[in-house]
Design brief:
By secondary structure, the chain is an alpha/beta fold. It contains 9 helices and 11 strands. It has an 8-stranded mixed sheet with strand order 1-10-9-2-6-5-3-4, with helices on both faces. Strand 7, helix 9 and strand 8 form a beta-alpha-beta unit. The mean pLDDT is 88.
Length: 241
């Protein structure tokens, strides 16, 4: 039985996830296998039907693995976000936090294989990429995401997927100075800037060199970008840079 049947006030539901964000198509996407959701922090609108579309099933009893290693120390727990914990509880899903710096490689690979959804939390993209490379699971993670297993990336977790890292390098208030020493996963062909506010637009635009043809989007906390079914979609109103 799903916890989504529990009676809650609209205010409570709005704090957990929003069903109000309109989802619209941006363009066709060449990789028709990908099932990717990229968000800032708060849950994107219509997450449940998007995941159900990706998984071709209801969410009850499905397993989410959250890799928290973009954070450090106590941040790892904070970066798991109460939104994800509450969403999985409401939808009768299982949530497992998988610290890849603390578990054997064999267990990590088995957990990624058996889960239904993979998620990366926020922090610094370089921390997560270094942790992935230290235990030599980059090739497996790229392969499993490219195979179509749904992926949800929050904040810096979303910034690990592109082929370039201009936004991570120059992120306002928390530049990721180590990102130049690691390679991003290179799974998607555009960059994302999370936690965007409209006043930031000139500064964010300046982070992408004018002479390079880099597709990029800035996401407010309730915006998201979605790749599924060979389409790039937006939830809310991300700004194309």
């Amino acid at each position: 039985m799903s916890y989504s049947q529990l009676k809650k006030s609209q205010d409570e539901l709005d704090k957990i996830f929003s069903n109000k964000s309109k989802i619209t198509k941006i363009r066709d996407y060449d990789d028709k296998n990908l099932n990717v959701i990229l968000s800032s922090e708060n849950f994107i609108g219509s997450l449940k039907p998007v995941l159900e579309r990706m998984l071709k099933s209801e969410l009850d009893d499905l397993k989410v693995v959250l890799i928290p290693n973009a954070g450090i120390g106590t941040e790892k727990m904070q970066m798991s976000y109460s939104y994800l914990e509450q969403f999985t509880t409401l939808n009768n899903m299982y949530l497992k936090q998988l610290d890849i710096e603390r578990w054997p490689k064999s267990l990590i690979l088995e957990s990624l294989k058996r889960c239904d959804v993979i998620s990366f939390s926020g922090g610094l993209a370089s921390r997560l990429l270094k942790a992935i490379d230290d235990i030599e699971i980059r090739e497996y993670i790229v392969k499993i995401i490219r195979s179509g297993k749904p992926f949800v990336g929050f904040s810096a977790g979303a910034m690990t997927l592109p082929k370039t890292t201009y936004f991570a390098r120059h992120f306002m208030g928390e530049q990721d100075v180590e990102i130049e020493n690691v390679s991003p996963l290179g799974i998607i062909d555009f960059e994302v800037y999370p936690h965007f506010e409209d006043i930031m637009l000139p500064a964010v635009k300046s982070m992408i060199p004018n002479d390079l043809n880099v597709e990029a989007y800035a996401m407010r906390d309730y915006d998201a970008l979605i790749i599924t079914g060979g389409e790039l979609l937006q939830a809310g109103n991300p700004i194309k840079i």
